[in-house]
Amino acid sequence: MNVKNQEHQQDKSPHELNRANSSRRSRVRKHLTPLLLTFFMMFALWIILSGKFDVFHLSLGVISSAIVAFFSADLLFGNQGIKVINLPASWIRFIRYVPWLLYQIFTANLYVLYLTFHPRMMELIDPRIIKFRSRLKGDLSRVTFANSITLTPGTITVYVTLDGVFSVHAIDKKSREGLPGEMEKRIARAFGEE
């Protein structure tokens, strides 16, 4: 600590110093929580996918997880602050979204298969890029929405602006009609943006 800061610290009352330290601890906790959560999630994934429990592989997992956590903690948990108590509910809501998404992917696969083998395929296929504004606010919910659209056959997310305008390529009219629709509502529910 430099001399100027030491003199400034001496001028403050013990109550002011305590409040400043509490504020500093709160800021550190706010930035450390996403980092630690991301680290432990990545390390658990490393262990599950590698299946190796020797010192060499575990140390590689710790190093890799730390690097990923350092660069991407804000991607998973954003800047809005994390309430660890709410995390299990968020994960449960997201896990409930996944089977619905898998069902949509399955039915869209069948529909694209139908289009492919239809005798009038060239008349039915009408590719267009549509634009719409999403009501989703969080970065993670928008990324999930964009990826869900792309995972569903017949649609591809081309671009998403920072203010939530989606550009989506759709193979035909039926694929366009469902956007943003039910998928956006379910993602909003999964991420608590209802």
How does this model look, in words?
By secondary structure, this protein is mainly alpha-helical. The chain folds into two domains: 3-82, no CATH class; 86-190, no CATH class. It contains eight helices and three strands. It is elongated and about 60 Å long.
Brief write-up:
By secondary structure, the chain is mostly helical. The chain is built from 8 helices and 3 strands; from the N terminus they run αααααβαββαα.
The main β sheet shows up as: 3 strands, antiparallel
Shape designation: elongated
Q: Pairing-aware structural class of the strands and helices? A: mainly alpha
- Rg for CA atoms: 24 Å
Strand percentage = 5-15%
Count of discrete alpha- or pi-helical segments spanning 4 or more residues: 8
Number of domains: 2
User: Largest sheet, order of strands side by side?
Assistant: 1-3-2
Global mean pLDDT: 82
Percentage of helical residues? Answer: 55-70%
Weakly predicted, low-confidence segments? none
Q: How many β-strands, per DSSP? A: 3
